[in-house]
TrEMBL record:
Residues 749-765, 837-847, 888-906 have a biased composition (Basic residues). Residues 678-816 form the AP-3 complex subunit delta domain. Residues 646-665, 673-714, 740-929 are annotated as: Disordered. Belongs to the adaptor complexes large subunit family. The keyword Signal does not apply. Keywords: Golgi apparatus, Membrane, Protein transport, Repeat, Transport. Transmembrane segments: none annotated. GO terms for biological process: anterograde synaptic vesicle transport; Golgi to vacuole transport; neurotransmitter receptor transport, postsynaptic endosome to lysosome; protein targeting to vacuole; synaptic vesicle budding from endosome; synaptic vesicle membrane organization. This is AP-3 complex subunit delta. Coiled coil: none annotated. It comes from Dendroctonus ponderosae (Mountain pine beetle). Residues 681-693, 798-812, 824-836, 848-858, 866-887 have a biased composition (Basic and acidic residues).
Length: 929
């Protein structure tokens, strides 16, 4: 035996320990994988030996390799073997490996139950602490159920080291086994007054985490926490307690009255910024909860805002961010207090940190009013010109639109200004992805604000002309969607619809959904123009327009997109029908004029039939209208319309060409789509059209063969054609000024005029009031009607309160109610005796009413007791239960009366809440013995 032991020690001298493994990995960086595979083979050889010291050394090396990303789940039995060692140094290595490699779903955990129970009951505090620390990493539901009583007994240990770890471990047990919370809560409550500060802090931490889900259960602990808040000097624990009070004050507003004074004292005295931030947050929550029952706390709000200003002005970016975050919470309830610091918020817009600029943007959203809206938007647009980064500029653009459109355009006094701002945003030269936001705003304003419709549609017509006349693409494509739709839908508002139609016919390559809208609204515009020409008898102009539209549709019908093809083919058919009808009417008109022009009768207009296709008033639709449409009976939305075709072979060598034949794939680029193969005639026509366009374009530098061959450029100077440009251009604008600025100047002039009128005599007040009535904002009406399906309302909400992936979901239990197992065990007696009572009913009909009365009485009483437990009704001043519970008692059941007497005694006990805070007890706790 001795020789064997000596031989094992000699072999161990040549084993590699953890230090050798780390050194070897660093020295073999080029062949790291090969070296580690060799080490793995050595480790497997070591694990086969009987010596636990050798096995622990191998497990230590496996733990390091696991941190590098290698799988060591195959060594689970060896890890448990090292965990069961009698030596603490070896045991510690095994528990460390278990905490890193085991998880709650590991199948080997069932082998560790008795071993961990033995460690928990050990006399050595470090062994018990080691087991608790490791168990917290991989505790499962079965382990929590089996070991909850053993961990609970450790709460009363004489050693603070064990008590602290046991308190923290109980939280992990509650997450996996929530039923352990009921028997453990009284012990946990005692630890809040533990003499050791570490145990006390651990208990506070656990209770604060438990209160995240159902804070009502912990409202009775308010006196203990209030005492800790006023006596403790531990900033970390104070932060936790103040957070808990912030969750408790909405449940008990009287608690907030007592918290204002100590919280303001902490704000004045503390130098810790983290504690200051939590105090301000809780003061805000308290003032929100007690705002209806107490006078205005303007001094507390001003104090919070002043302290937050100090945080925002600090050089530390983290403190600045937190200050802006807390300021946004005050803004929701006390906007005037924050609006006084508008200059500071605008300074934050120039900060280097993008997150701080975004927080400042959120604050500006709430600081807007009718007076300062134009000024704030102008500063944001100037800031957008200077800002860098597409993500931030996109956020800035969306925030400008949110600021203007909030509360159904509540703060907009001039909608012409808003339309101009949207057009300027659409023409900004940067790669923004917010074009759909601008387009939806333009459509929403035009539909809901009828007074601005003519101005907006005219702006959209000019936008289309700019798009088709310039060679550079400076307008967001999604805005063209709105421009085409608005000009087609409200064509009657256009001054020159024919010019708009001709500019729309010059559209270039566009995405499918935009090009299809262009084609559809070209038909709308054509029908509107045709109505005027047809009424005037100008049939030649109609035929000329029809030819232009047909030529453009013949190009679009060759598109690779099905939607564009369908719209273009439909438009072509309509144009062909119109041509036939107009040609027939033109010939009949000539015949009538030759025969007798006086006897000719006006015929029905062809345009009216086309316009009837687009009739109908448009109203804004509610955002969630589609979700509220009821699903018809018998319709299964999850069932396949056609079963998917299963391919026989999934090899990549044979590409499937019919994969996206009828469905557009989002991953396909426009350049890779199927293109129509033009014939020689089409190529010739396109070449001639391009040459004619170049000849008529004055901005195109034309050349000739002679000029190319000549070496001296002076020979052909006279041959250069000079065209006189007679363009009706708008007056030259100074750089830096925008069209929206004129509305801001008008707004300032009006406000100055109003201030001057206030200084005049009283008889001038009537004139100033008449001037105010001339403002457009007073007569502009925004449609508030939102279309919804029948039976649906706007108040319907889709709440996702109970999320399945929430780890704290199981803690949402009511500690005042008994557990479900006890309720199921104690079934009411009438459910058992029901067959006997049914027999008695058939025999004795006279006693039917007598038996029903006590049953009914008992069921009503049980319901009433449940309601009292759920709602936690307040008792009288002396703590006695209400008289209704005492009067109606059945004399037959003596046992139940005794139980009710015991319950009333427990309800009469006070919890010390009135002594600490001076208010009545909001909840009464009944814990099972």
């Amino acid at each position: 035996m001795a020789l064997k032991k000596v031989k094992g020690n000699i072999e161990r001298m040549f084993d590699k320990n953890l230090t050798d493994l780390v050194r070897g990995i660093r020295n073999n960086k080029e062949n790291e994988a090969k070296y580690i595979s060799q080490c793995m083979e050595d480790i497997k050889q070591e694990l086969r030996q009987d010596n636990l010291a050798v096995k622990s050394n191998a497990i230590a090396k496996l733990t390091y390799l696991q941190m590098l990303g290698y799988d060591i789940s195959w060594a689970g039995f060896n890890i448990i073997e090292v965990m069961s060692s009698n030596k603490f140094t070896l045991k510690r290595i095994g528990y460390l490996a278990a905490s890193q490699s085991f998880h709650c779903d590991s199948e080997l955990l069932m082998l560790t139950t008795n071993m961990i129970r033995k460690e928990l009951n050990s006399q050595n505090q470090y062994e018990a602490g080691l087991a608790l620390t490791s168990l917290s990493c991989y505790i499962s539901t079965d382990l929590a159920r089996d070991l909850s009583n053993d961990i609970l007994t450790l709460l009363s240990s004489t050693k603070p080291y064990i008590r602290k770890k046991a308190v923290l471990m109980m939280y992990k047990v509650f997450l996996k086994y929530p039923e352990a919370l009921r028997p453990a809560f009284p012990r946990l409550k005692e630890k809040l007054e533990d003499p050791d500060p570490g145990v006390q802090s651990a208990a506070v931490n656990v209770v604060c985490e438990l209160a995240r889900k159902n804070p009502k259960n912990y409202l009775s602990l308010a006196p203990v926490f209030f005492k800790l808040m006023t006596t403790s000097t531990n900033n970390w624990m104070l932060i936790k307690i103040i957070k808990l009070f912030g969750a408790l004050t909405p449940l008990e507003p009287r608690l907030g009255k007592k918290l204002i004074e100590p919280l303001t004292n902490l704000i004045h005295s503390t130098s810790a910024m983290s504690l200051l931030y939590e105090c301000i947050n809780t003061v805000i929550a308290v003032l929100i909860s007690i705002s209806s029952g107490m006078p205005n706390h303007a001094a507390s709000i001003q104090l919070c805002v002043q302290k937050l200003r100090i945080l925002i002005e600090d050089s530390d970016q983290n403190l600045k961010y937190l200050g802006l975050l807390a300021m946004s919470k005050i803004l929701k309830t006390h906007p005037k207090s924050v609006q006084a610091h508008k200059d500071l918020i605008l300074q934050c817009m120039e900060d280097k940190d993008e997150s701080i600029r975004l927080r400042a943007l959120d604050l500006l959203y709430g600081m807007v009013s009718k007076k300062n809206l134009m000024e704030i938007v102008k500063k944001l647009m100037v800031h957008m010109d200077k800002a860098e980064g597409t993500v931030y500029r996109d956020e800035l653009l969306s925030k400008i639109i949110l600021i203007c459109s909030q509360n159904n355009y509540q703060f907009i006094t001039n909608f012409e200004w808003y339309i101009t701002v949207l057009v300027e945003l659409a023409q900004m030269e940067f790669g923004s992805k917010q074009g759909h936001v601008i387009g939806s705003q333009l459509m929403d304003v035009c539909i809901r604000v009828q007074a601005i419709r003519s101005f907006a549609v005219t702006e959209m017509g000019q936008l289309l002309e700019v798009y088709t006349s310039t060679s550079q693409f400076t307008i967001m494509q999604e805005v063209l969607y709105a421009a085409a739709w608005l000009t087609g839908e409200f064509a009657s508002e256009l001054e020159s619809p024919e010019n708009t139609l001709r500019s729309m016919l010059k559209y270039k390559s566009l995405p499918q959904h935009i090009e299809s809208v262009f084609i559809h609204n070209i038909v709308k515009l054509f029908a509107h123009i045709m109505e005027k020409h047809e009424a005037a008898g100008n049939y030649d102009a109609i035929l000329e327009l029809s030819d232009s539209i047909a030529c453009k549709m013949n190009e679009s019908i060759k598109s690779g997109e099905l939607e564009v093809q369908e719209r273009a083919s439909t438009a072509l058919i309509i144009i062909d029908i119109v041509k036939e009808e107009i040609a027939a009417k033109n010939s009949s008109k000539l015949m009538d004029d030759i025969e007798d022009p006086l006897t000719s009768q006006p015929e029905e207009l062809v345009a009216s039939e086309i316009l009837s296709l687009f009739k109908g008033e448009l109203n804004p639709v509610a955002p969630k209208a589609q979700k509220k449409v009821p699903v018809p009976d018998g319709l299964d939305l999850d069932a396949w319309i056609n079963e998917p075709i299963q391919s026989e072979s999934d090899s990549d060598s044979e590409p499937d060409n019919t994969e996206n034949l009828f469905v557009k794939s989002e991953k396909l680029d426009y350049g890779n789509k199927y293109q129509y193969e033009p014939t020689e005639e089409d190529i010739k026509k396109n070449r001639e059209a391009r040459k004619s366009e170049q000849q008529n374009n004055p901005n195109y530098l034309k050349g000739s063969l002679d000029s190319e061959q000549s070496s001296n450029g002076h020979d052909n100077v006279e041959t250069i054609s000079v065209a006189e440009l007679n363009l009706d251009l708008p007056p030259l604008r100074v750089l830096g000024e925008k069209r929206s600025d004129k509305y801001l100047n008008l707004h300032k002039d009006k406000t100055k005029g109003k201030k001057k009128n206030k200084k005049k005599k009283k008889h001038r007040k009537s004139e100033s009031s008449s001037d105010e009535n001339l403002d457009v904002a007073a007569v502009v009406e925004v449609k508030q009607v939102m279309e919804l399906p029948e039976g649906a309302t706007l108040s319907d909400s889709d709440s996702d309160h109970h999320r399945l992936d929430d780890p704290h979901r199981a803690l949402d239990i009511d500690l005042d109610l008994p557990p479900i197992s006890e309720v199921l065990a104690k079934k009411p007696p009438e459910t058992v005796d029901r067959p006997q009572k049914e027999k008695k009913k058939s025999k004795k009909k006279e006693n039917k009413g007598k038996e029903k009365k006590p049953e009914k009485h008992k069921s009503e009483k049980r319901k009433k007791a449940k309601v009292e437990n759920l709602l936690e009704l307040d008792k009288g001043a002396d703590g006695e239960p209400k008289a209704e519970n005492k009067t109606k008692k059945p004399k037959k059941d003596k046992k139940k009366s005794k139980e009710k007497g015991a319950k009333s005694k427990t309800k009469n006990s006070t919890s010390g809440y009135e002594e600490a805070l001076g208010i009545s007890t909001p909840t009464k706790e009944i814990y099972p013995s």
